[in-house]
Amino acid sequence: MKRFSRFGQRTLVWLTALSVVVFFTASAGAGQFKKEYKMTLNVGPQFYWGMGAVKFVELVKKKTGGQINIKPYYGSSLLKGAQLKSPQMVASGVIDCAYESTINSSPVMPEMNIFSLPFFINNFENLDKMEYGATGKAIFKVMEKKGLVGLAWAENGFRQVTNSKHEIHLPKDLQGLKIRVVGSPLFIDTFRKLGADPVNMNWGDATTAFQQGVVDGQENPLPDVLLPVQIWQYHKYVTRWNYLVDPVIVYWNKRQFDAFPKKIQKAIRAAAVESARFEKALCRAGLDGHKSLDILKKEFNYTIKIPDPIAYVKSKGMVVTNLTDAERQAFIKATQPLYDKWIPKIGKDLYAKAKADMAK
Ligand code: X2X
After folding, report:
1. Of 4, 130, 250, 288, which is the most exposed, with the fewest CB atoms less than 10 Å away?
2. Measured from the CB, is residue 40 less than 6 Å from ligand 1?
3. Domains and CATH numbers, the chain
4. Is the CB of 83 within 6 Å of ligand 1?
């Protein structure tokens, strides 16, 4: 008996498959969440950045009534240390979300280099004006086009240069020094321009390189990265030149985020914003008068262990160098040619937005 034509049989198979897909999609929308959402970050839980990520995990759990559980994977362990791969992996959905530095997104989204232009931003006030202004909005749009939803601005901080050889006051002091940098082209350009010998390396390999003296120096924020790695064990000298800043963005795979019920989306956003406020205050404590110390105490009932990171590294034997205006000008002059090369890559519009935000 010929019940179905060949064509009919095929249609039936397709319809059955389709209804299975529709059923699972519908039930997912009705509150079937994954058992665990994977989050990547490049550092460990002892960093302020890592503590912000832990806070995010806790707040998401609390605010979603335990429906969304995030597991943090530290030290870019899901990427085998390849820190610059984080945005692609979240965009593809292999990893669900990230608490990640803008530097680690800059090879995929060159707009992120707006924060890495040397001697452009200089202080927290300017940075906040950009992040919460037109620049921040534009950056989140760029992320959306890549399949990522930006949820909040956290921080790693203004990056300072450390080394084992001598104080750095002027570009000539960097001459020939081997400096570990992230494998982001603008960093390599900057240190070459300054006469140093930049060596790019993932963070996961950096501490061993400091220990073995494979490099003479590095650049990372004080307090956030320099305190937990106890940089004074390797480098005696730090120059506080605030040459660029490293924001951290809390972000999520867009397809997945958009499919969450509105209530869940709202809860995750609120958790991201609250954790970022805590994390930023940790990174700024002792560097912005009483402001961040007060936020930690009053809003989070948290007493930070090292309220004055500068005095702390001095107590560990470090020589802390602050630049005079003239010394700062020498660095600005030496790095100015990079603007011609990098503003077109970053985007002239975004650069103009950043300047306008800072002038407000
Ligand atoms: O690799 C670095 O230097 C670090 C830890 O600061 C970042 O992930 C950008």
Report:
1. 4
2. no
3. 35-359 (3.40.190.170)
4. yes
